[in-house]
């Protein structure tokens, strides 16, 4: 089984931490490739919005098509914003395309009926609510809590904020499960679970496990991405008309985790 985990930034700094995560959580018979976008996307690509989001989405689609050409079984867009998720599914062919938000929400709802999203900052809320409208009302969290800082800041302060907001979510909002709404929260779920005593979902780990399960179900049950309606794929003739898709996409960095 081959899974590509795409960090949608034009910077390789995040590749090693996610390779370490994959090494820890993948099965022995699964090959995981951690890749990042071409350097032209820039290090801030994951925070894109409006016109810049469209530019990043174009590279993600090219990356997905390249993964398809390389016969990957699944392709994970490793950002909670899930840029170009449907478009990548349309162009992915037999390859399954997985998003960490959808994966972690589904995981949270298997672990409890009421969950809280822990955000980096309140600006994330509008984007998340827009995505949740598509998933349906039953997928909405009981509350949002924000730590008001990034996961690349002082670790002691990040931990204190996570514990503080996590406890408020459980004690005041009635949350039964916590969901860290950023893939850069990598590794924090274990400390938070121990401190608060409820399940805490890491979206990157949830996406990796979901990708593996999706591939297994496709192989045993034939459940691949639908090719009708909203996710109908372009024809091979149509794809050949786009030279940007015919030329190999050059990733900014790749780490193979055997």
TrEMBL record:
One Gene Ontology molecular-function label: amino-acid racemase activity
Top-level taxonomic group: Eukaryota
Pfam family, one: Asp_Glu_race
Family (UniProt): Belongs to the HyuE racemase family.
Protein name (Swiss-Prot/TrEMBL): Hydantoin racemase
UniProt organism field: Aspergillus terreus
Species classification: Eukaryota, Fungi, Dikarya, Ascomycota, Pezizomycotina
